[in-house]
Specification:
It is built from nine helices and 13 strands. It has helices at about 15-25, 45-60, 75-85, 100-110, 225-230, 240-255, 260-280, 305-315, 340-359, and strands at about 5, 65-70, 90-95, 115-120, 145, 150, 155, 170, 190, 205-210, 295-300, 320, 330-335.
Length: about 350
Amino acid sequence: MRVFNFAAGPATLPLAVLEQAREEMLDWQSAGMSVMEVSHRSKAFVAVAEQAEADLRELMGIPSNYRVLFLQGGATGQFSAIPMNLAAQDSTALYLHTGAWSQKAIAEARRYTSVSVLADEKASNYSTVPAPTSYVIDSSAAYFHYTPNETIGGVEFDYIPAAGSVPLVADMSSTILSRPVDVTRFGLIYAGAQKNIGPSGLCVVIVRDDLIGRAREGTPAIFDYASMAKEKSMLNTPPTFGIYMAGLVFQWLKREGGLAVIGERNRDKAEALYRAIDESGYYRNPVAVNARSWMNVPFTVPDPALEKIFCAEALVAGLANLEGHRSVGGMRASIYNAMPMEGVRALIDFMADFQRRHG
Ligand SMILES: *Cc1c(COP(=O)(O)O)cnc(C)c1O
């Protein structure tokens, strides 16, 4: 029996997509083999990759002066690929520090370039985002990096920073495709696939043309945007199954009505869950109201000794992976695109029942 899977990543996938993949598993497009077993250079597979790109472009409204790259090495690989491609050794890159993932991005960038941290939300224990007017952009900087959604802290920007002429770079791993976004505001968007796109092993990079071809000496070819763009992400064997699955997810998103519809659904899901937390007088979400994530909802109970019991009982009720990140404890419900409202409702009902019994 399938459970409602609230894992932060790898995360739940749309049932319709899994069923289609199962259906096609042994004999894909009458090839007599699975999609995993065909050549990435074959006409049939190249068509899959091209369709996936076209569907992503349509969903996000990606203009023609941006390349879409399907890379490996996860979002973490991009923590180093971004400075290698965009920052000369003697330049400065600007970062916002809003939680665990931006911290990792900063630490990695420091190995390649000088980093200036424009804002650090330490004072609020990373439960806030900096006000849009609280930092000044140095127009000579190589790029300006931020993390629109901090997956561990459940902290999400409610605005896109104004970076002026400096290329804005966003780690959208846990928020991509969750609602419409104006791609033209960004120089580069990247996202590990395992939250809102498909299985792990694939990282999507959307990069503006003028930022391609600047990689520093010594950048590995598989991380160099110019060589990967030139080879249409097939300089070497790409993660073919991941690209196929991402393509199925993109088609599912289109069938569901696109990002405007998905965005409303995600807002409704998040509002219902936060309301249940706030009105309970028992559960608590630590994040500033304007910075509450639509995708990752951390919450606590008054007695931390009950956390283990909460997660164990939830699992029996068919609600899996509600443990908070190992670094912060508590609970966390990740409610990405593929989590239906029905799953959120089931969680809310379970929370009320748990409170009655233990509160
Ligand atoms: C999951 C995640 C990452 C790391 O992704 P990997 O693919 O495991 O490298 C980076 N940034 C954010 C915001 C994430 O949610």
